Structures are given as structure tokens and as C-alpha cells.
Amino acid sequence: MDTISNYVDSVFANLPKTPEVLDQKNAMLTKMQEKYQQLKSAGKIEHEAISGAIAAYGNLDDFISSSISTAPSENPGNEVFLTSEQVDEYIDHRHRFAWAMATGVFLCIMGPTSLFLGQYLTGDRNAHGGRTSELLDILTLVPLFLFVAAGVALFILYGMKEQQFELEQKRIKLDSSTYARLKAEHKAFRPRLAVAVAIGVALCILAPVSLLLSVVLIGEDNSLSLVFLLSFIAIGVFLFIFYGIQDETYEKLLSIGDFSKDKAEKNKLVGIVAGVVFPLAAAIYLIAGFVYYAWASAWIIFPITGILFGIFATVYNGYMDLKKKK
């Protein structure tokens, strides 16, 4: 019942506090409470009863007369109210989504890694040449395509599940108790995020170090150095994505950080650019690897893209801030 009351409060929050508006607010609350009790008596569970009451009598237009101006209201059509149960369902999905995206990227990076490991393990046999050598060369490609195929499958499967929530470009509204709970959960999550980012950065720094050490200790002509390099990067990137998406989930639900009202508009263009440049960077990396066999050096495209994108986002946001002040 508190969820219904909080929902009605949020709907009428930006309307003038006139007696007429208050009467219509009470009318909406009464109708929704009656519908809630009716659905509960019919055997509906809490979540279904609340959703049914909101669907039946949660439309502001049904209660506000045309003589009352709703212009002061800042409750645009891109806002959506989520109950506590819907929030928990979304968080559970985003946890699995974070795991799927992080694992997918990890597998795509480990694909070339498996190729180099296979080449290293079959290096002695390849020295003999012949049909057996050619067969082994072909077999080393199998894990590469399996890893990449599994990663792409995760992207597609969980990307489609993400779209089912229809929360893209939406600003989420919550009742006060759910907001306070999520705020506390986010505060408890931040230290874990900091540790994960620190470990990820350390691994990415150690990646070229491991490459150099393996070259010194094993020799220049070995594929194992690339295995170490890409493995360190794969684990670091996994941590960035897995914990980054979960932090993004809390920010979206709480409308803070990059999802605050002021930043939401600015981040539209930034998001569009990110959706182009990062897949393009991955495509360049794969082309350089398969066509020019530059797996060892082409990985540099990812930090370069990240740095350039960060510069673009900072400059663009700064420009929009200056434009707004004028």
C-alpha cells in the first residue's frame, strides 16, 4: 500500500497544491487502493495487485480536469515508475547481463589467445612439416572460432533480454523506501567497484610487462608471450565491464551520475558515438589480426580508442556546460 501512496505522491508532485488538485489526488489514491484490495481478494500476489491498480487508475489525465494547467509538471513521457519488485527483477537481470557482456568480451579476447597457445603447443610438431602440420594449423583455429561464436551468442541473447525492459532513454522514478534501500546498496557496492577497477588497471599495466618478460626468458620466437599479454588484458577488461555495468545499473535506477537529469541530455550524443567507435575498434583489431597477423600489436587500438573517446566526452560535456551558461 505504501508503494501506491508513493506513486500517487510522485504523480502529483509538480502540480499546484490547490484544494481541487488535492481532491483529485485523494480520488486517485482511493480508486487505486480499492482496486488493490479487489485484486488481493481475487488471489493476486502483492506485485500483481500493485501493477494492476496502477494500470487501472494510474493515469493522471483521468483525474485532472482540463481547466488545471499541467505545464509546471516535469513528469515527461520518458519517465517510468518502478515498484520495489520490478526494481529487484531489473537488478537481477542486470547482474546476469553484466556477467554475459563481460564473459562475451573475455571470450572474444581469449579466442586469439587460444590460437597462440595452440601454435605454441604444436610448435615442435610443425617443425616436421607435411600434412600433419597443416592439419594441426587448421585445428588451432577451431578454439578461436568457438570462443568468438560463444561470445557473440551471449551478446545477442542478453542484448535481446535487455530490450524487453524498455528502459532505454527512460528516467526511472521510485518510491522513497525503495530509493533509500538502493542508495544504501550502492554505497556498499562502491568499495567492491574500486577494488575491481584497481585490479583491472594493474592487470592492464602488467600485460605488456608479461610480454617483455616472456620474450626475455623464453625468446622472441614464441607464441606464449602473446598468451600472457592477452590473458592479462582479458581478465582486466572482464572486471571493468562486470562491475561497471552493475554500477551503471544503480546510477540509472537512482538517476545519479551519468543518468542525472542534467547529464542525460548530454550523454545521448556521447552514447551514440560510443556505439560506433568501440565496435569499430574491435573490427579493426580483428582485421589486423586475421589479415596482417598483428595480434601482438593491434591490441593497442583499445587503449587508444578509450583515451580519444574520453577526451571527446570531456570536451563535449564541457562545451555543453558553457553553452547552457550563456
Care to describe what's here?
The protein is mainly α and 326 residues long. The protein has twelve helices and two strands, in the order H-H-H-E-H-H-H-H-E-H-H-H-H-H. It has a two-stranded parallel sheet. Helix 8 packs antiparallel against helix 9. The longest helix has 43 residues, at 176-218. Mean pLDDT is 78; it is low at 66-75 and 124-132.
Per-chain topology:
Layout: H1 2-11, H2 19-41, H3 46-57, E1 79-81, H4 84-121, H5 123-126, H6 130-139, H7 141-164, E2 171-173, H8 176-218, H9 224-254, H10 261-292, H11 295-298, H12 301-325
Parallel strand pairs: 1-2
Helix pairs in contact: 1-2, 2-3, 4-7, 4-9, 8-9, 10-12
Q: Helical segment tally?
A: 12
Number of strands: 2
Query: What's the rounded overall pLDDT mean?
Result: 78
Main sheet makeup: 2 strands, parallel
Assess the beta-strand content as a share of residues. under 5%
Distance from N terminus to C terminus (CA atoms, Å) equals: 46 Å
Regarding quaternary structure, what we see is single chain
Task: Please compute the radius of gyration using only Cα atoms.
Answer: 27 Å
| Topology order in helix (H) and strand (E) letters | HHHEHHHHEHHHHH
Please list the strands of the largest sheet in the order they lie side by side.
Answer: 1-2
Structural class: mainly alpha
Helical percent range? over 70%
Choose one word for the global shape: elongated
The low-confidence parts are 66-75, 124-132
